[in-house]
Write a structure and sequence with these properties.
The chain is an alpha+beta fold and 724 residues long. The chain has 12 helices and 43 strands. Strands 8-9-10-11-21-17-16-13-14 form a 9-stranded antiparallel sheet, with no helix packed on it. It has an 8-stranded parallel sheet with strand order 22-23-24-30-33-34-35-36. A hairpin with a 2-residue loop joins strand 6 and strand 7 (88-89). Helix 6 packs parallel to helix 7. The longest helix is centred in the middle third of the chain and has 18 residues, at 466-483.
Length: 724
Amino acid sequence: MKISALICLLLALSGISAGESRIGQQGLSPDYVDPNGRFEKLMVYGKTLKMGFKRVDFLPGGLPGKIRVYQHDILAAPVELEMVINGKMQSGTKRVSLRKNGKNAAVAVGTQKIDGAVVESTVTAGWDHTLKVRIVIKPEKALAVDRLTLRFPLKLDSEKLLCGNDEPPHKRISGMEAAKKWVRKNIRGIQEEANSMWHNLWIGNTRYGLAWSFESLKNWNCTPGREMVFSPANNVLSINLINRKTAVNKVLEYNFFLNITPVSKMPANWRSWQVGTRYNNLNKLAADKLIYWSFWRPGTRETHNSNWVFDPDRLKEIAKMDAAAGKARMFYFIPSHYTWSTIAQKDGVKYMLVDPELERMTGKSLFDPDYSFQFREPAGVKRVNSLDEWKKLFNGKQPVTQRAGERVCRLTPELADRNVEVVRKFVNEYNIPGIYSDGIAPKADFSPGSGAERDSSGRIHPAYAVQAYRDMFKRIRSEIFAKDPVNGLMIAHNSAIRFFPSLVFFDFVLFGEDFFYWYRDPEKRDASPDGDFYYAHIWGDIDNLKTEFYRQYGMPQVLLPELRGANRKNFPELTRGTRTMLCYTIQFDMLYWALFCDAREIHAFDNIRKKFGVSGNSTEKVEFVPYWENKRFIADVPAVKVGYYEKHFEHDPYMPTAKPQRFLLLVSNAQFEEQAFTLKIPADLKNVKVKNASSGKALELKDRQIKLNLEPYDFTVLELSADE
C-alpha cells in the first residue's frame, strides 16, 4: 500500500478528513476537561444536570423545569412549548431521559406524543456549560398549526435588564446605523419589548440571566416584528416560531444555544489585573496583562495575517522577557478579517507581498453583504510570494506600506483550521499563550447556502455561524491551556454585544468601543464639543450601565475609554471627560484599558484601589457593594450615588479585641449641577476616621455626618476606618 493511501485510511478510521487539521481537536471531544479548572466537570443526578454552581432540572418533554445559579432560581415556572392545532392547545404523553455522553458531556432527550405528531426535544451540554437545544416536530399527518411558541418565564424580582442584537438589513451598514441594532435596556415599565429577531439576546438582572442565540430562522412563520417578545409585566420571553396558520406536512427542526449566566466564578485577584499594549520593543510596562499588537508585521501598516511575523526572534525575545516578569501574553487575533497582500515601494518599483493560500481561501468565502476593504492591484506591481524574499528585498527592515486590502469572510473549515494553527504557532513557538480576539461573534450572512432564509413576507433573514465559531474557540482554548493552564489567557473584545456561545471560552471581556463618537446620537455626542461631559450625554441615567455590571456575567469587565471626537483625535478637555467617565464607572467595579483618555486619572484611581487592597489576600477578603445595594452610607441627595469596598479580616474568635472595619467609599455626583451634600455614617461603627483617599487629608466628622461638595459629574474616594 502506498504511503499516501495509508495516511488517508488512517485519517478515515480516526474520523478526520484528509483536509481537516488535527490541531485542537481534543477541545471538541465529549471527554475533554478544561485544564484551567474554570469549568467544573458535568455531573448527572437523575433528571438533574449540575454544571459547577449551575443546575438544570429537566421535566418530561425534555425542556428545563428549573434553572438555578448558586441559590437563585432563574425560572419562575418551567419552560413550555405551546402548540395550538386547529384552535386546540395540544398536550399528550411525555417522557425524558438524561445521561452522560462521554466523560464530560450530557444529553437530555424528551418526547411528547400529541394528536397527529411527535415532538422531540434534545438538550446537549458540553464542557463549557453551554446548552444546545434542538426541537423537532414530526407530523404523522398534515397539520394546521396556529401557534408554536417557546415560553421562558423568568424570575426577575429586582432589575429587568436586556441586551440584544436586532438583525441587520440586507445591506452594508456601519456607524450609528449599526449601533441602533445593539440594544441595551434597563426596563422600567411594563411595555412589551418586541423584535423581528434578536439573533442574540440576554435577559436578566444584576445577579443572573439567560442568553439565547440562533443560527437562522429556518422553519419560522411569524408575523414580522413578533418573532421574539419579552413582557416585563410577567417576565415571560415568548419565542414565536409560528404564530399564524401554517400547513405542516414535513419535519420541522429548530435549534438555538442557551447560556446560563454568570458563566463562571470570578477569578482570584482579578481586581489587581492591569491591561496594557505590547508593541515590538523591549520597553518595560507596568501592566501585567499584555496585548501583543499587530505592528511586528511585514510593513509599517497593520495587517491581519498572523503568519506574517517579520522578526520571530525578536518576538520570542520580548515574550521571554515578559514571561520572566510574570506577565500574561496575548496576541492580536481577528477571526473574520484577513489580509492576503500588502504593498511597498523600492527604487520606484512597487512590490506586493502575497499569501497565495490565504488569497485562495478568502476569495470564495466573502460575506454578503461584503464588508471587505477593497483595493486595486497597481499596474506593473511585482508579486512576492515569500516573507523571506520580502525581508531580503528590504534588507531586513520593515518597509513603509500602504493600507492593505482586507477580506471579511465567513468561517469556513479551512479558515478555522488556519486560525487554530496560527494560535498554536504563537503558543508553542513564540511563547505567547493567549489571544486578544477582536470580534468573537459571527457576522450576519445573507449568502446563498449560508442558511439565510426568506420569510413569507419576502424579507431575507441572515444566518450566523454560531457552531463554527464555538468549535474554533474550543480548539483554541484547548491549545492555549494545554501549554499554560495557569497563566494562559483569552480576552474578548466584545464591545457591542454579549455573545455568550463564544464568550464563555474567554477569561474577561473588553468593551466600550461602541461608545465612540460616530456611534452616538448627534444631539448627544455634540452636546459637549470638548468632551467634558461626553459620557454623561451618551449614557444619561447611571442605572443604564447596570447592563454592564460584571456580576451577572461572571467575568471581569474592562472598559476601553473612547474620548475621541469627529476627527478621531482625543477631545481637547481629556481630564474633565475622563473624570465624567469615571464618575459613572467606578460605581460598577470595572477595570480599564487606559487609551483615548487622560490615563493619569485612570492610574490615580487604580492606585487608590491597590493601596486599599481591593484584591484581598489570604487573611483579608474584600466585598464590593454597588450603590443600589448600599444601605449603610447614605447621601442626602438622590443624585449622589455611593458604592463601596468593604474589607473583612480573619479574626481569632478567642481574642477579645474588636474587629477592625475598613471601607473605601466611592462617591459620585451623577448630575449636571454642582452639589453640596452630607454623607451619613452608620451608628454601629465606633472610633470612625475618614480621609480623602487621594490627598490623604482627614475629613471632619460632625454628628456622624460628612459635608462634601462635588462639581457636576465628578467623584471623590474616601477611606474610612472604624471599630465594630
